[in-house]
């Protein structure tokens, strides 16, 4: 599934018409009919359906929806919310066809709002993806009126008032119960300040060639079928050396559990051999939790690792650092040492990211891949911006950082965005609010370490790790836990169930 900006969607429509001869009227017909059939799944013929049609493609889709529903015996009334002269081109043609088929169009006025009050279902086809800036009249008033009604609200492509792209803050928009997205979801379907306006949503195809999406956008949603295709299978004569030797560095006297959870998650996720590295007191506290792991003690000062610890990376295929490490100056020096000497890919998480903010120039100097795993607060710290700014433009900020420093960025959130150094972006849809607890990130880092050591591309590995992490939480919440009581250790145990589900269906 692709993710598009407004410009990318407009470019696809333009290319479909100019290069492939797909007429705009046909694309509008395909869109409207596809939406109408989704509407039929959500409604019944004894319900009164009111359709609010604006100008442009969104309004044109509304007329096709109305005609299709009318033809299938539904009770339909169209409220045209713009002047007649603004209905032009393909939208005008479909309005005419609708009227010739016996459909009625009422022009919006103060008296016509009775339709909003009487409708059981309201279909919002007013503005579309061309929304920028503040909502103007009459749309601002209509949005308020729609949101006041008890009717079930279905938006066409995007709730009116919601921008397609990231970057907007103050939103005045239709609160849809359900949105039928046309072609591909827009960025705003995944942003904290806009996603809720969509309600539940589905995507319908309108006949645009798939390769055009590959040509015009590098943003996709990583789904179950992607995992099934890319997750490496075990071979008959595999041994532990085939599945990676990983090193996990972290822990301090106040936070020994972070290292323990990462070690357990890496082992559970399929790593061949895992070694935990920390101070002797931390190892003594956690070694019994993961008897399958090996441990090496490192030098510490008052329980915090220092740069006198010389780690040899020669035998390791990948490493992770930062979980529960602490934020002392001595640990910063140690992180710098690891970054400059590691001869394998490294994942930097937790307190490692805090120290990374002082070591950014060292990133481009690394000869091996680097993965960072910030939540929005950590991303804001690294960028020198506010958390609010990161939440408004997560796609852009993640891409800018990945390309500037030649790193993989896993920007964690309800929809985690994984960005490669070349700007390719994938979004993970799995997971729930049960993951919003301490330790969840440590578990994800362990899964990532295991994944990057398997026979798959680094980008695929990171995406699969995020999917497995979120899917474990989703399956556990379905029938064993609630989002309130779910613990990071539960997610580790749930990995077994995820693998069984994926491998049995793949």
From TrEMBL:
Please list the residues that bind AMP.
412-416, 441
List of residues binding (6S)-NADPHX: 57-61, 128-134, 157, 258, 324, 375, 442
Q: Per the record's keyword annotation, is Metal-binding included, yes or no?
A: yes
The UniProt record lists the YjeF C-terminal domain at 223-502
Its cofactor is:
Mg(2+); K(+)
Cofactor note, please?
Binds 1 potassium ion per subunit.
Looking up InterPro entries in the UniProt record yields:
Carbohydrate_kinase_pred_CS, CARKD, Nnr, Ribokinase-like, YjeF_N_dom, YjeF_N_dom_sf
Write out the GO MF terms.
Answer: ADP-dependent NAD(P)H-hydrate dehydratase activity; ATP binding; metal ion binding; NAD(P)HX epimerase activity
Catalytic activities: (6S)-NADPHX + ADP = AMP + phosphate + NADPH + H(+); (6S)-NADHX + ADP = AMP + phosphate + NADH + H(+); (6R)-NADPHX = (6S)-NADPHX; (6R)-NADHX = (6S)-NADHX
Q: Which residue ranges does the record assign to the YjeF N-terminal domain?
A: 9-214
Keyword line: ATP-binding, Isomerase, Lyase, Metal-binding, Multifunctional enzyme, NAD, NADP, Nucleotide-binding, Potassium
Q: Where are the transmembrane segments?
A: none
Question: Which residues bind K(+) per the record?
Answer: 58, 124, 160
Output the GO biological process annotations, alphabetical, semicolon-separated: metabolite repair; nicotinamide nucleotide metabolic process
The protein's Enzyme Commission number: 4.2.1.136, 5.1.99.6
Which Pfam families does the record cross-reference, listed alphabetically? Carb_kinase (PF01256), YjeF_N (PF03853)
> How the protein assembles, per its UniProt entry?
Homotetramer.
Similarity comment text for this entry = In the N-terminal section; belongs to the NnrE/AIBP family. In the C-terminal section; belongs to the NnrD/CARKD family.
Its function, per the record, reads: Catalyzes the dehydration of the S-form of NAD(P)HX at the expense of ADP, which is converted to AMP. Together with NAD(P)HX epimerase, which catalyzes the epimerization of the S- and R-forms, the enzyme allows the repair of both epimers of NAD(P)HX, a damaged form of NAD(P)H that is a result of enzymatic or heat-dependent hydration.
Q: What is this protein called?
A: Bifunctional NAD(P)H-hydrate repair enzyme
* Species this protein is from: Virgibacillus chiguensis
């Amino acid at each position: 599934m692709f993710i598009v900006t407004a410009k990318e969607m407009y470019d696809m429509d333009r290319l479909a018409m100019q290069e492939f001869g797909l007429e705009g009227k046909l694309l509008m017909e395909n869109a409207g009919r596809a939406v109408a059939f989704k509407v039929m799944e959500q409604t019944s013929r004894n319900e009164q359906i009111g359709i609010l049609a604006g100008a442009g493609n969104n309004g044109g889709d509304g007329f096709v929806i109305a005609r299709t529903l009318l033809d299938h015996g539904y009770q339909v009334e169209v409220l045209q919310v713009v002047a007649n002269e603004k209905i032009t081109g393909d939208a005008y043609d479909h309005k005419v066809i609708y009227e010739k088929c016996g459909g009625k169009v009422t022009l919006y006025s103060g008296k016509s709002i009775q339709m909003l009050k009487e409708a059981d279902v309201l279909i919002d086809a007013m503005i579309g993806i061309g929304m920028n800036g503040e909502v103007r009249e009459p749309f601002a008033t209509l949005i308020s009126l729609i949101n006041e009604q008890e009717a079930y609200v279905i938006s066409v492509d995007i709730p009116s008032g919601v921008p397609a792209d990231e970057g907007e803050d103050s939103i005045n928009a239709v609160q849809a119960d359900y949105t039928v997205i046309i072609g591909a979801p827009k960025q705003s379907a995944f942003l904290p300040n806009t996603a809720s306006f969509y309600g539940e949503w589905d995507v319908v195809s309108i006949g645009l060639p798939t390769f055009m999406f590959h040509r015009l956008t590098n943003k996709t949603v990583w789904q179950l079928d992607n995992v099934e295709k890319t997750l490496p299978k075990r071979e008959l004569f595999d041994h532990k050396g085939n599945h990676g030797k990983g090193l996990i560095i972290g822990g301090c006297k106040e936070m020994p559990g972070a290292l323990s959870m990462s070690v357990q998650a890496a082992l559970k996720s399929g790593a061949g051999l895992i070694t935990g590295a920390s101070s002797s007191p931390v190892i003594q506290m956690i070694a019994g939790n993961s008897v399958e792991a090996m441990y090496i003690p490192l030098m510490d000062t008052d329980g915090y690792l220092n740069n006198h610890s010389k780690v040899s990376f020669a035998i390791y295929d990948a490493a992770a650092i930062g979980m529960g490490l602490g934020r002392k100056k001595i640990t910063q020096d140690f992180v710098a040492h690891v970054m400059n000497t590691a001869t394998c890919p490294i994942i930097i998480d937790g307190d490692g990211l805090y120290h990374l903010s002082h070591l950014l120039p060292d990133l481009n100097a690394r000869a091996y891949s680097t993965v960072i795993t910030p939540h929005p607060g950590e991303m804001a710290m690294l960028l020198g911006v506010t958390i609010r700014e990161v939440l408004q433009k997560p796609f852009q900020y993640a891409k800018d950082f990945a390309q500037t420093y030649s790193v993989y960025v896993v920007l964690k959130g309800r929809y985690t965005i994984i960005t490669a150094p070349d700007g390719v972006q994938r979004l993970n849809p799995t997971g729930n609010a049960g993951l919003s607890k301490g330790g969840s990130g440590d578990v994800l880092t362990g899964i990532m370490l295991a994944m990057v050591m398997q026979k798959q591309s680094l980008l695929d590995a990171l995406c699969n790790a995020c999917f497995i992490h979120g899917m474990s939480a989703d399956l556990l919440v379905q029938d064993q836990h609630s989002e309130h009581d779910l613990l990071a250790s539960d997610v580790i145990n749930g990995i077994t169930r995820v693998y069984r589900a994926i491998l049995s269906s793949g």
